[in-house]
Amino acid sequence: MMKELAKMLIDAHLSISSVESFTVGHFASRIGMNPGISKVYRGSIVSYQTMIKHKVVGIDQDLIDKYGVVSSQIAKEMCLHGQKIFDSDICISFTGNAGPDAMEGKPVGLIYIGIAYLDHVSVFEYRLSGKREDIVEKALQLGIDNLKNEIKKNTSSACIE
């Protein structure tokens, strides 16, 4: 599935970046393994700890304090800030709780995926089950599927050279 996404991005000349938390760079690692991806893949920030989301990604501490890092608001900010940092057409973000314990009073398996696509942002909420590795794998697949859907939906209106 990542191979298909990579081809779509390359064919549409759409640059992409990622800001990851609980997925700890798995998206970056997998997309980076595709031949030719250097034409469009800009890079990734793994902002695992809250202070990195604030100090490196640039998310306002007041937003983090108000909503917590496991929230749609922070997923949105992560992808928007990543899009700006990497100057990319698209940025995907992953934030959530893969376990083993509740975090910020939020259950294991609650995750958010943000996608900044040109000037539009979508945030997706999921409640996943399974072990930590299962939650990460499911989140990556959902992220890939959502990216492919966004590209299919928007490519006709995107400027393709």
Structural commentary:
It holds the Pfam family CinA. InterPro entries: CinA-like_C, CinA_C. This is CinA C-terminal domain-containing protein. There is one protein chain. About 40% of the residues lie in helices and about 20% in strands. The longest helix has 23 residues, at about 130-155. The protein is globular, with a radius of gyration of 15 Å. The model has no long low-confidence stretch (mean pLDDT about 95). The protein has a single domain, classed as Maf protein, CATH 3.90.950.20. It contains 6 helices and 5 strands; from the N terminus they run αβαβαααβββα. The chain has a 5-stranded mixed sheet, with helices on both faces. It has helices spanning about 1-10, 25-30, 50-55, 60-65, 70-85, 130-155; strands at about 15-20, 40-45, 90-95, 110-115, 120-125. With about 160 residues, the protein is of the alpha/beta class. β4 (about 110-115) and β5 (about 120-125) form a beta hairpin.
Identify the strand order in the major beta sheet: 2-1-3-4-5
Number of helices: 6
What does the radius of gyration come to? 15 Å
Tell me which CATH architecture applies here.
Alpha-Beta Complex
What is the CATH H-level superfamily?
Answer: CinA-like
CATH class: Alpha Beta
